[in-house]
User: Which sequence fits this backbone?
DNA sequence: CCCTCCTATATAGATATTCGATATATCGGA
DNA sequence: TCCGATATATCGAATATCTATATAGGAGGG
């Protein structure tokens, strides 16, 4: 499942890149934003997010910079690179294709089921 | 990602159950049907399908029976049980929920981005 | 006749994604 | 002072899927 492997299982990467399209964010913020935006459907965990971000950075899809917060630990912000923007476009297209195919299969069956 | 783990990564199980909702099928047939139905998007591999079918059988979601073909090896047909039908309904609902959440996140960003 | 491809099922090992648990550090409230 | 929230990080485990390989019969070409 070429498409599946890197996309649907890896949908977290797509979601993170999508969030960064709008503005720079730090990790913790992403978790909350994603939860809110998805109406509490996506619960991205810290143990998933941080390794993912490091991976994206290695691939050059995002860059990172640190900034002190008013209180607490300094925050590590992530910024989408041009390459990241490109990858995002591709991943979005793949998702659309995947979702459409799912829809076609799920709709095709049931009652009358033309085949 | 509770939802994600068992559903989106496990979307193959959903697809297989969906195909069996219509009529009994044997493994090889499923691969071809799925490919055709999804407009060549899903390429379910033998090494994925057969272990998956065994798993579904163990869980009681499908039953299997063998039947000779006109030629070649005998075919192992799979039939959806009531329990399987129930699981299918649940998985379909979960998929809808997931797809909707994805749509919300992917749509929410971009230009105007209300938040 | 042999070799390869297509049908058909099956298993083992590899890879990737995500989670749970754990660790660190700072701040505010009970 | 101890706990919870913020904030980042890493490791081991679970799971899904893939690739490669094996078996087996039939059809077609060299």
Assistant:
């Amino acid at each position: 499942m070429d498409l599946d492997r890197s996309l649907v299982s890896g949908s977290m990467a797509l979601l993170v890149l999508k969030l960064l399209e709008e503005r720079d964010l730090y990790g913790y913020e992403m978790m909350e934003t994603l939860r809110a935006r998805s109406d509490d459907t996506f619960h991205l965990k810290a143990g998933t997010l941080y390794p993912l971000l490091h991976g994206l950075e290695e691939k050059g899809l995002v860059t990172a910079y640190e900034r002190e917060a008013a209180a607490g630990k300094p925050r590590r912000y992530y910024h989408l690179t041009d390459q990241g923007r490109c990858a995002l476009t591709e991943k979005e297209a793949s998702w659309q294709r995947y979702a459409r195919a799912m829809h076609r299969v799920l709709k095709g069956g049931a009652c009358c089921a033309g085949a």
Observations:
- Residues 1-6, 110-115 of chain A have pLDDT under 50 and may be disordered.
- The radius of gyration of chain A is 17 Å.
